[in-house]
């Protein structure tokens, strides 16, 4: 009975197109910043003494703890001594760097940015990550990219720059002639750089590591590192409400839906789709983020966000044209190579096919 149910479940999953999983993941990822800000507002309406139990630090720390529990339940079988023994010290070192960058530093900076500027700024400035990743992949991994991808990345970079420098003077930390730079936007830029570096390290050194070990180790170490950094910066009283039932009832939902379900949908969709399709769907993250900020927080985009967001959208479209052209070019080369091989075989065999 159980095996019949399992087979039926697998058949249903196979019938679901990979793009459906990708779109579900993007809806979750895009809305995550707005939902995080909304949770802190709910906490502000339910103070414990003079403290917000759903502070941004508590959301990251406890949310990751909840996600870690779920990840261990899902992937505990991969954590056995036979698999672990195959992982080299160099791989563990690189995994540690990735965990610190993408599991502690980048999320901490993004959450701090959310506390200092509006969600739309954080979402749009976060689009700096793809151009940085592209530049680092060309520089460090020697990857070849077409001119369309470079132009698209450059336009997106200009869009992010406009989003940052065209902020109203009252929200800026630096008021220079003609433009303004806010602390929140600067933190979002540093977070984007940290994520880009971690992506490059992962692509270069961690492609063969099992998903369960990667996810659990990254979440666990990132949570521990963030905890100690927050203790040093804010003191021991900062996590006083970290184990309150009111916080955990929200974090169980947050950790399962935002962290675990979002990542699971994305990985499931990525394995059933092409890279170009995943890239196209992923490009809609800022659009979902801006819409979520409006629907969840009633946050209306500013003029700077309209200008920067429009340029980012143009850059995304041009990049996708480049990806489509590149894939079409590779497909044509493969067809020509296949045809040439067939003709050579036919010639060697002494006859032509009809």
Keywords, separated by commas or semicolons:
354 residues; mainly alpha; globular; disordered C terminus; two-stranded antiparallel sheet; single chain; 2% strand
Fraction of residues in helices? Answer: over 70%
What is the subunit organization of this protein?
single chain
Indicate the radius of gyration in whole angstroms: 23 Å
How confident overall, as mean pLDDT?
80
Largest sheet: 2 strands, antiparallel
Broad shape = globular
**β-sheet strand percentage:** under 5%
The helix/strand class is mainly alpha
Count of individual helical segments: 14
Number of strands: 2
Structure report:
Strands 1-2 form a two-stranded antiparallel ribbon. Helices cover 77% and strands 2% of the residues. Helix 3 packs across helix 11, helix 5 packs across helix 10 and helix 7 packs across helix 8. The protein has 14 helices and 2 strands; from the N terminus they run ααααααααββαααααα. The chain has 354 residues and is mainly alpha-helical.
Task: List strands and helices in order, with pairings.
Layout: H1 2-15, H2 18-44, H3 56-75, H4 81-85, H5 89-116, H6 119-125, H7 129-140, H8 147-165, E1 174-176, E2 179-181, H9 183-205, H10 211-234, H11 245-271, H12 275-282, H13 285-297, H14 303-349
Antiparallel strand pairs: 1-2
Helix pairs in contact: 2-11, 2-12, 2-13, 3-10, 3-11, 5-9, 5-10, 6-13, 7-8, 7-9, 8-14
């Amino acid at each position: 009975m159980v095996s019949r149910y399992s087979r039926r479940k697998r058949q249903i999953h196979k019938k679901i197109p990979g793009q459906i999983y990708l779109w579900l993941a993007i809806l979750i990822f895009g809305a995550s910043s707005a939902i995080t800000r909304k949770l802190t507002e709910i906490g502000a309406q339910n103070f414990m003494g003079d403290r917000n139990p759903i502070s941004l630090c508590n959301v990251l720390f406890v949310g990751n703890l909840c996600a870690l529990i779920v990840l261990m339940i899902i992937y505990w079988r991969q954590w056995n001594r036979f698999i672990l023994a195959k992982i080299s010290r160099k791989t563990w070192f690189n995994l540690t760097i990735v965990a610190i960058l993408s599991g502690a530093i980048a999320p901490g900076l993004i959450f701090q940015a959310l506390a200092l500027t509006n969600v739309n700024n954080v979402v749009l400035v976060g689009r700096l990550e793809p151009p940085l990743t592209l530049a680092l992949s060309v520089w460090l991994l020697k990857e070849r990219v077409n001119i369309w991808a470079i132009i698209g990345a450059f336009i997106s970079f200009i869009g992010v720059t406009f989003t940052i420098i065209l902020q109203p003077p009252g929200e800026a930390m630096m008021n220079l002639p003609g433009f303004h730079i806010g602390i929140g936007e600067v933190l979002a830029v540093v977070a984007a750089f940290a994520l880009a570096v971690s992506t490059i390290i992962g692509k270069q050194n961690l492609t063969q590591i099992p998903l369960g070990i990667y996810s659990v180790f990254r979440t666990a170490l990132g949570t521990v590192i963030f905890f100690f950094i927050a203790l040093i910066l804010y003191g021991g009283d900062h996590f006083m409400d970290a184990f309150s039932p009111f916080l955990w009832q929200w974090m169980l939902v947050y950790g399962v839906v935002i962290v675990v379900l979002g990542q699971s949908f994305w990985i499931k969709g990525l394995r059933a789709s092409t890279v170009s399709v995943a890239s196209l769907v992923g490009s809609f993250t800022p659009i979902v983020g801006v819409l979520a900020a409006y629907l969840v927080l009633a946050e209306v985009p500013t003029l700077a966000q309209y200008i920067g967001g429009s340029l980012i959208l143009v850059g995304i479209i041009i990049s996708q044209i480049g990806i489509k052209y590149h894939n079409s070019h590779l497909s044509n080369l493969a067809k020509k190579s296949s045809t040439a091989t067939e003709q050579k075989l036919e010639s060697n065999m002494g006859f032509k096919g009809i």
